Amino acid sequence: MPEAPAPATSRPPTAAWLRAFTAAPIRAGRMRRLLPIALQVFSLLLVLPSLSAQPNIVLIYADDMGYGDLAANHPVSKIPTPHLDRLASQGLRFTDGHSSSGICTPSRFALLTGQHHWRRFHGIVSSFGPSVFEPDDFTLPKMLQSRGYRTAAIGKWHLGWDWAALRRPGAPIPTKKVPAEPDHYDWDKPIPGGPLAQGFDEYFGDGTINFPPYGWIENDRFVEAPTVMMDTATFRPIPEGEWEFRPGPMVEGWDPYAVLPTVTDRAVDWLSRQNRDRPFFLYFSLPSPHAPIIPNEPYRGKSDAGAYGDFIVETDAMVGRVLQALEDHALTQNTIVIFTSDNGPELYAFERRREHDHWSSGPWRGLKRDLWEGGHRVPLLIAWPGVIERGRVSHETVSQVDLTATFAALVGYRLEHDEAIDSYNLMPLLKGEAHGSPLRVATVHNTRPNAFALRQGDWLYIDGPIGEHSRRPDWFREAWDDPRKASTPAMLFNLAEDPGQRDNRYAAHRDRAAAMKSLLEAYRGGRGCAPHASPEDPFASPTTR
Fold it and tell me: Would the pTM of this model clear 0.85, i.e. be above it?
């Protein structure tokens, strides 16, 4: 692994420098030009003493980890997760936390912008796909950067880059039938449009573990140029699932098994280089337990849920390494740690249920891509020493989009009506203060175009006759009592009484269903979900501003 560059530092002007600046003879015109600069310097000096008091933020984002994979959520889980369980015991565990989508790219976009993905797109970024961001998009890291935070993204990105800037003249645009080849790109050029364009000071990762190009990217350049094509036949067999690699350029000798430990090494190293003069934001995006399911040797056989369970054990251990790094460098007491996942578990969960009696979605119906709860109800833990009471459990319905408004309140950033328009401020909830309940007026669920659901309190409205995307095996349907399709045009469930979503109440509560459909259509029509985006909303609570 290449040696990490020294972190950028921000050194405030000294008082002597300021005296020299203000004492120098300056013509009136020059004074007018320099006055704005002097005012900025003065403002910076006022802010700097308070920067060290701001809490650091570490956001750990798992990939395809189900609600029921976390032992703290699901006592009958066959997978030990001691480090995550300890994190849950040190802070707040949400039982009703949701990703914006049931697949990864949209959820990541929503997490980093505070707006639901479906306002912009639904699908994932394909191999060599462009950025999903617009140049002037508001993002969480940009906001924190503007408040003096050091920012870093380490691990999976999967939000696109401007690969066209590297494509050589005459090289074809890659497609599924015509994959990119190593000589199609100039790998020495910087890659625009990635994490650095969205407010991150630093980036290190492999982009996306199962998408080309396969190699390490540091900031906006490849550490080593890809020179060969990916060939899964060169890798040793995997114990569960499929490789899922797309063909494309690869660094010679690339080892997928090294990805998870290497990005963890870099996260630990980055934390070791932080100090108390400025707060930091680390977005640590894990490639696991997404396929390929490739637990390293020390973790094999450590669970009772097969190779996937072992991969979760390794993931938990990597989280433990990050938590230990915070402890080692005396950063724990002033750091907020968030752990969550981009969506529910992959379809391999069916056979896992049959072979190991472990259901990765816990008590919930459905998997990744589904409108059912298992597609988007995910683990969500937040620890904040001295602020969040240890060992709390919240049953409030919350969404990952809410992190943006929460951190805006933390750093004193007033969101404009067109920024983070779906994001609620969770700060009253985190601090145990009085707040309206439910905190959110409603929560929208979506993965595919024209397939939406709306949550209000205990009630879930699905705007269609089915909540699934992929067909379940017949044996699973019979065991789960899982009807193929409802006999009503939409579905309504009371999740407090029916977490498995088997009892469709639509026919008995048509008025409730109609009201929820109307609100869903208002959101889909452009109305922001958050109070600051729709101040005229009669349901908006002042505690959520």
Answer: yes
